[in-house]
Amino acid sequence: QGQLVESGGGLVRAGGSLRLSCAASGTIFSGKTMGWYRQAPGKQRELVATITTGGMTIYAASVKGRFTISRDNAKNAVDLQMNSLKPEDTAVYYCNAGVRSLSRTGDYWGQGTQVTVSS
What DSSP string describes 3-26? Predict the structure, then answer.
């Protein structure tokens, strides 16, 4: 059974940085596009970034140039480096395995990690 475990969230001031990590079981990571999504209070979950097994990436316009998604296929891990954080980046961030398209997520989700950016 697939499992995703996120870590690295926390409280940071605007302009600061955080790095999120997601550890996945091999069965749901290997050969799969991985993604990070976020959900702010009162808002729908939205795509932040995705990365294919070959390393091709897609970013939401709101984070492009500030966030970097990466993966280590040998360790079954995907990270999200977040720089120049803004208060509007405050949300629960989720790792997703098996992203199908920009509008179709995969079947596996982590438990989420809270990111709070203070002004």
Answer: -EEEE--EEEETT--EEEEEEE-H
Which are the contacts of 58, defined by CB distance < 8 A and separation ≥ 6? 47, 49, 50, 102
The answer for residues whose C-beta is within 8 angstroms of residue 59's C-beta and 6 or more apart is 48, 49, 67, 69
Q: What is the pLDDT along the chain (119 residues), one digit of tens a residue?
A: 679 999 999 999 999 999 999 999 878 898 899 999 999 999 999 999 999 999 999 999 999 999 999 999 999 999 999 999 999 999 999 999 999 998 999 999 999 999 999 99
With contact defined as beta carbons under 8 Å apart, do 111 and 3 qualify? no
Distances 45 to 35, 96, 112 between C-alpha atoms, Å: 12, 12, 12
Question: Which pair of tokens denotes residue 99?
Answer: 């992203």
